Each structure stands twice: as C-alpha cells, then as structure tokens.
C-alpha cells in the first residue's frame, strides 16, 4: 500500500494523441504562426566580437531601407524598469544582455534589433548595421581555461578516500564532452502585443508560460495578471525553453518602440548562441573495487563551461551518488567562465554528462577485473535505498531493466573478450550502461469545465512540448471519471489557465497527473452535491463511491441511482459546471526517494579501415512507474536514445579559439542524428506502479532515455575494437586514430 | 537578401546577353538562395534559366549528354545513366537530401560553392568571400579543410559528390559563351585550385552558361563504386569521398580511375595511383599500395591529419567495392 | 525600372566592414571617411499568379519572398514550417508539381504555372490523407513541428518507390530532421502506407 490508493485498473487506452489531428494537418499554431493585424518583423543583429565594448553603431543605412520602422540599439531602446540600476537587475534575476549595455560578453550577443514592415526588409536592413568595437581578450578555449580553475567539494563526502587507496582494482580516467546544442526544430520566437501601457500579450515558444509571465512581470514592472502568454504548440524544447531568453524582452521592447505587434523569430545560427547549450565538460573518475568486483570507492570530479555573465551549474557528479553503492565517495566540481553564450539545462542535464564518465569507468573496470560488465553493475546496484539520503527508494527496478534488456539484445551470446568478433572488415561489439533521474514532482493546478452533454474540458497552463502531456491528462481523466475519450478535451499552454510549473526535468506528467486526479475528484464531489438534491444517497458521498460515465452520475456502481448530467444541468439551471483543484508533493517526499531508471544496450559495428560506426541495435528498458500511454512513452524513450546516438557519435559545436566563436553554427555544420543514423530503437518498460509518487503512479521518461546512452555506445565500440574513446563525440576520425 | 530584379529569359542567347557582372543565373537555387540569404551573394538581377536549358538525357555517338537543367534526382534514376554510368547515380545519391536533389540542376551542382564555415560566416575572414581578408580556417578550425592542392590563401574544399564521379569519368562541361557558340571544357580543367584568386572556383568564362555535361562512353559500368565518409550516415558533407572505377580483364586491371572529394579545392584525381594500378592484379595488396601512393601526395594541415589514414582506408574499401559492385 | 532603382543613399560613402575598423575613433562621422560606395537598391515587386492547393492566387510579391515566407506570412498557411531557412532540415517540404522540394530555397515568383501542394492541401476534404492517418496511428511525431515536412516528404518517398526496406526508407527520409527523434514512428508510418 502506498501513499496513493489506486482507484482504477491498468486499462488499455486508445492510441493516438489528443493533438494528433492538428499536428498532422499543420493546423496547430506555434508561436510565430498567430495572425495578428498590423504585425511587423524584427531581426536581431549579433556582435562579431567575443569580448570588448561597442564604440559606435551606425544604423543610418539600415534605417534608409524602405519599410524599416526603427533600429533599436543600447542607445535608443526603451527603458526596462528592471535594468534601471544594478541592484534592480540582480533582483530581477535576469542576467542576459538585452541592449542595456555597450559591453560585449560573447560573439552573437544582440547589439541591434531591426524592425520593419516585412521580414525581407528587416533581414536586408540587418545586414547593413555596422558596429565598431574595442576588442578585449576573449576566453573561449575550455581546455585551456579549465586547468586554471580550482575544483571544490560538491555534496557530502562518504567514508574516506584513504579507505580504498589500496583496492585490488583501481581505474582512473578523464572523460571529455564538447558543447552540444538543443536545436529544437522550432526556432525560438515571440510575438509581442501591447494593449495600452500595462497590458501585454505574448505568443512565445517556451516550456512554461507562467515562468515567462512572472519573469516579464518582474522585468517590465507589470502585474502578472496583465500578461497573457500563449504557447499552445511548442516545437520542442529539450531544456532551451525553460529559461526566458533575450528574444522575449527584445520583442516586447520593439513592440513598445513602434507601437505595433512585433514578431521576432531567431535564425538557426542565433539558436546556437542565444538560447543555451550543453556546455563542454571535463571529468575525472577514479573508481576502485575488490577482487570480486564489489565497488569500494569513487572520486568523481567535473568541470564545465559557463558564461562570464551568468553562472550555471550542471550537477554532473550527482549521478555517481545515486545508482550504485559506494561506501566511500567524493564528488568535486567547478564551473569555467567563458566568453560564450549562456549554457542551460539540456535533456538529462548533468546526469547525462556524468553518466558517460561513470558508466565508461565502470566498464573499463569490468575488463580490468575480467568480469561481465552487466554482472558487475548488477552486483553493485543500489535498488533498495538511495545511497545519498539513505531513504528507501519508493520503487527502483533498475535490476529488472538490466535483466530484461540483456535478454532482448541476447547479451549472453556476446564474446566476453573485446575486439574478437568480425564480419568482413566490420568489428562487432556490445555495450551496456545505466541511467537514472530523480523523479521530481511539483505543485500544479488544473480545472474542468463540464458541458450539458457531459463532455468536459480539462485545462492547465502547462505546455506540451511534444511529450504527450495532453494525451496523458486525457487518459488519466478517462480512468478517473469513466467519461469516454472523445468527450474529454484538453486545453494547455495559456497563462490564464490554472497555474502550472514549466515542463521540464521529466516532471510534467508526474506533476500534472496529480492535479488532474484532484480536479476529477472535485468534479465528482461537485456533481454529487447537485445530485444529492435529487437523490439523498449522494449526500456525504466520497469520490471513491461516485461512478461517472457518459450517461451521468451513479453511486458505487455504474447505473446504480443513475442521474443523467442533463438532468442535473436542467434542475440546477446550469450552463456549465466548473471546478479547479491543485495538487503537489507531500510527506511522501520525506519518507521516500524517487527515481526513474533505464538500462541501455547497444550493438555496434565499427569499420576497421574508415572508422565508421554503425549502430545495429539499440535497446532501452525503462522503469518509470505506471506507463500512462505506452505509445507516447516509448516515443519519448526512443527519441531520447536517438538524441543519445547524436550526442555520442556526431554532435559537437566547434569552438574556434583564434576568432573567439562557435564555428559552423547551423544544421549542416552541427550534426544531430538523421533518420539513417538510428536503427529502429527497441523500447520496453517494467511498467510497475510507483504507489507513492503521485495518484497516477507514473514517473517521467523524458530524460532517462538519454542518460547512459552515450556510455552504452562507447562501451560497445570498445568491445568491438578494443579502443576506448573517452572524448565525445566519437567521430570516425577519433575511432580511426585511437590506439587499442 | 538584397533586392533584385527577377527576369526570365526565353532563349540561351537572351540568358547569356543578360548575364552582366551583377547578374546571376537561377536554376535550382539550392545553393544560390542560401548564399543570398546570408548576403554572401548579392546579385542585382536573377535570370531564371529554367525554361531555357535542356532537361534531356540523350545517348550520343561518343557517350551521353545530360542537359544542364536535368534535376539531380532525375539523373540518378535515369535508365541510361544507371546502365552505362552507374557511378554518376551512386555519387548523386550520396549528396544532399531527396528534396534538394529534386530541385538542384546538374549544371548548378558543378557551380556549388564551398561549405567552409569561414566562407559562410560573413563576420569571419575568408579570401574566397572577400579577397584579401585572410583565410580564417587556416588559423582556426581545419577539420573539414583540404589536404591537397591548398595554399595559404585558401584551404576550402569543393563540396559536390556528383563532380567527383564526373571527374573520374573524364566528363566534359558544355558551355555557350557570349557569341552563343557551343564549346566545351574538360572536367579536369573546369574547377580550379585557389591560386592567387580563391574567390574564383572555376574557369567558366564570365558570360558563359553551362548547357550540358557530356560523359564519353567507358568500360567502367560493371566495376565502380562511390564511398563517402562523413560525420553522420546521411545529409552531411564529406570528410573524404572516393569515386573508384576499374576496367577488368579477368582479375587484371586494364584501367583504373580514382577521384576524391573533401580533399581539395576541386575534385581531385589520383593519376599516379591510377597509373600504378594499370596492368596489376585487382587484389587488396595492390589496392593498399595505391592508397599508399595517394597518401604520399597529401599535405594535411595542422588539425586534419586524420584525413590521410581515412582517405587510405576509403581508397582501399572503394576499390574492393568495385569488385563486388 | 532603372530610374527608380536606387535610393538617395546611392552616392553616400560609408565603410562596409566596421568590424575591421576597431581602431577608428568614436564618432559617427568617422564612418563616412571611407570612400567605398554603398548601393542600396529599392525592393522589387512583381505581380504573380500562383496555384496553391488548387486555389488560385493573384499576388504582388517582393522578388525576394520565398515560397515558405509567402505561405506562412501572407497566406496564413502556417502548416509549412521554418526550421532553418537554409535547406538543412526539411521542415519546409512542400510538393511542386508532385515533387517534394524545399520551400525555403524556392522563390515564390518562380513557381508560377506550377501546382504547389502544402500540408493543408494534402487531405481530401475532411478525410485525412493515409499518411496523416498513419502518422497518428504510429505516433510518428512528438512536438509536431517537423511533422508537416515529414509527411510531405514521406508521401514523396512512397511515390518515388523508396520503401523496399527500413534502411531505404531511413536514407530517403534523412532530409527531414526530427530533433525529438521520432524516427521509429516515421518509418513505421511509411511502411504502413507503402504496403
């Protein structure tokens, strides 16, 4: 028995998403697609130096272009109240440069914003803005800079490092990962519309409308209630939409300046510098085990890049504290300020990076000990208690993930020795690695509006960035209320709807499912209240004893004391019935630790002469509690695995330290996986309810599909070739040049 | 984009006479519009030549003639090309994406500009884009850059796949000049090395228009292969690529053709290795020696040394693939 | 046409590359010391007739307007998506005369006399196209932003006959990037329709 009593069985739910029709017909509106009268276009001009200051800006030529309405620079932009002085800016918690200074912190920093009648006019005019700079020495070379930054303890040390200094097996290795960029398919965009001086509408691409509302409220000194944010369809996020970036206040400023609605969509190259990235990292892992492979201790050190104007911490070493039993543990970290744009959370932030080092090091150790890497992991998993807090895991079936995955990929058929299996000039190898993610949950609200015909609309401010949140909500509402799917509409992504946190960190469904369950109970109680005037049996009824269906409300079982919705609406003379409820985590969080887990298995082939790596098979088995919608959940996991393939084999934002910039910032230069890079990803779930996490028993799956994927692939490459690649991405040149 | 006038000539003569210095021909537009959006190319006038040029693929006495306006995808799927010049089809299908191949014209493919990131970023130095501004890549990131035929002026590489096959097969570029007379340029002389004017990619006369590509009949249709190595499986430019073709008599090589992309400012033929293979047995040991000869010709830059062993591997594999093709 | 070609700034001298002029002292005037001419042409407009999703349009467009920007910004056909604007992602895929092409690299004025089909014109009346239906059933998307381009491309892939194996489908769908990584469902949708 858990904190939450389940009121429904695991029923099969229909497949297909609530918003599917709108997505396959292209009729769902993304931020830049709302049609607004008199809208004009803004195009950003970025700095061409990485550090220094603006001496002069010439916007005359740009302003001369037919159709250009104005050009904003730090000299003439409207004042943002929050940037009036340093203290105010600090309080507003917004550290990004938005034309409020002549100082340059990174290449691509906004220095001007051209506003014009048409996109064509604005684009051309933007090319005519010229800037002269005083250039300072820029720091962009992470490899060079990180050596100068001291490392400090992160989290509590367990046991001591001396205790295992003589362990029979000790492995110590450094692992590095280059900058990776979110690149959601929809570029960040904002349409800003002022209604007078104090009311604002924003059509914006983000992962949390309330976050945008609150941030803009602070920056522009407008009450949140006067700011409406629409983000009904969001073309991917992966973390880039968790923060309010400079494009939002810039669009608002521009709209103020020209007194018209302004549309600002970033260009793809701007997506590389202005909306975050996963920063380059260096890690060192020392891991020790006894002769049988019992882990004795670990030292995990990590450093990663951040911007010079905004300190961002990844939490890379967190993963080492979670998955396995290490009696002795020390984690240390540091951030390295660089003249690059601000990094931010990107899919599986921290853990994704950390897991590459941890799971690679474990793999290296397994070959030292000559023990099956699968068994070594199984023997050391911490599935009973969270090793960090000592709290029992509410549920943790990572061991079952491993066993199931091993079966799926036929792990036992693998030759235990590396570099032994050949097919012509291809070498074949298998790899395994685990991933884990804290299963978080926040407070959220939802409401239901019921119509006379018994159809309902369930709504919340939360966005659906493609995870299937809306579909999950529909499924939960159906399970809770018994109302048919086709009578349940979902409304999301509007700040006027009941408040919800941003969708990120795999907490979306876990968070909102509680609110949906709560509002379903509220609807039952409200209906029971009305019904009790017609049938006393509903007086003092509890949600558990109320049974709803398309026909109406019943007591304890379908049809029993049935009163039709129509009858209730007529009797009470109602147009609609509206209820709202909130739900959030409670004391279960004191008692238990929560996680989602995943095991990744990979079969690769590596060409001996060209260094080409092909993924033959990729299996991912996930433990994330109850799976509310298997199709959407499997899609999340396989999509994350595809992200993992890109991360491992090809994603790299090159940095040119001579010119102080990212190089090749577009989708031809930055290679995330295309269709042909991935095999059909094989996904399965343990699908056992977590009875303590929330009323639905479901946990998030968005992150665990990528956490550990990189190590599984790198480990498979080692098994295939005997070459250990410790620097991501593992492009063919690195494979070819590596020594076995 | 900078504003421009769009005109639609109806004859080759009109097209050629309209091609003043600030005008550009528009066929598929897949590279030109990209460059115009980046303000790298800023023509005053675009001449839409789509109704002017031939879209025919014809058998000729000496081989095949492919109209300039044939789309890449149409050429790749053409029966005549598949049976007589399959190397051309293989190479086309390794380039770009199906959508781009549906748009891109055969002549336009020859005129693609480099994908060097320094050429594409107008705020960085690039002699090819802005003469005298310096070579950004040489001081910066050279991973994608040339390993042969480069000079301190420019280390950019030619991006086409089709052209590597055309180079191996000694194609000819058919052009109409100012006088509206048809002449031709051997493929090896069409593209140029950077020299002192890297802003020029090829030797096409200023006012000329490409009207067709001719490939002479050859015995390479049975044993040929195109291998492209890149950072992902598809839709990426080459790290190195190899077009290989063998004429075999039993297992003896009568004649060999080897060309590479991703290595030089132009499609690069490996004449020494071809000469070496002539008369030799078609086996791995000779393929390895050919690869060694090729490796000795290269001069990798600081940062792209990997291209040499990768090229060697690619040469061996491409030649082996000729035997199983 | 020529006489109205240039705006008054035609003869104004200015500097083209200020980035290289970091040493120039403060003051806008310094910018005009350079003698290089900057030519600012006026935009050109053209009257065109288009057929999009079998509807006829008489429009006056800027010659620079791409088919993508035309449908999205002027015709409210926002189903066609802008994912890169440079031919590197496939989100803007439409059909021109039945062939899948990229609308971001197509000038609107060059598709006169051709039939353009966008995602909005793919379905017949209220019936979804079988590919759209398959994408729903196979969950061939997540965020949905690349989806119209994927579907237009998938229809092209089937019409071209590139559906003999998973590998072939994957290769011939690699011009359509999906950052959500919904490639499983995309391939399955195509297999379903190709049967």
UniProtKB/TrEMBL annotation, chain B:
Residue ranges constituting the FAD-binding PCMH-type domain according to the UniProt record: 1-220
SMART domains according to UniProt: CO_deh_flav_C
Keyword terms: FAD, Flavoprotein
One Pfam entry name: FAD_binding_5
Keyword Transmembrane: no
InterPro entries named among the record's database cross-references: CO_DH_flav_C (IPR005107), CO_DH_flav_C_dom_sf (IPR036683), Diverse_Substr_Oxidored (IPR051312), FAD-bd_PCMH (IPR016166), FAD-bd_PCMH-like_sf (IPR036318), FAD-bd_PCMH_sub1 (IPR016167), FAD-bd_PCMH_sub2 (IPR016169), Mopterin_DH_FAD-bd (IPR002346)
Gene3D superfamilies, per the entry: 3.30.465.10, CO dehydrogenase flavoprotein, C-terminal domain, Uridine Diphospho-n-acetylenolpyruvylglucosamine Reductase, domain 2
Keyword Acetylation: no
Name of this chain's protein: Xanthine dehydrogenase family protein subunit M
The organism of origin for this protein: Terrimonas ginsenosidimutans
UniProtKB/TrEMBL annotation, chain C:
Keyword entries, A-Z: Iron, Metal-binding, Oxidoreductase
Domain 2Fe-2S ferredoxin-type: 46-122
UniProt keyword Metal-binding, yes or no: yes
Pfam family, one: Fer2
SUPFAM superfamilies: 2Fe-2S ferredoxin-like, CO dehydrogenase ISP C-domain like
Annotated protein name in UniProt: (2Fe-2S)-binding protein
Source organism of the structure: Terrimonas ginsenosidimutans
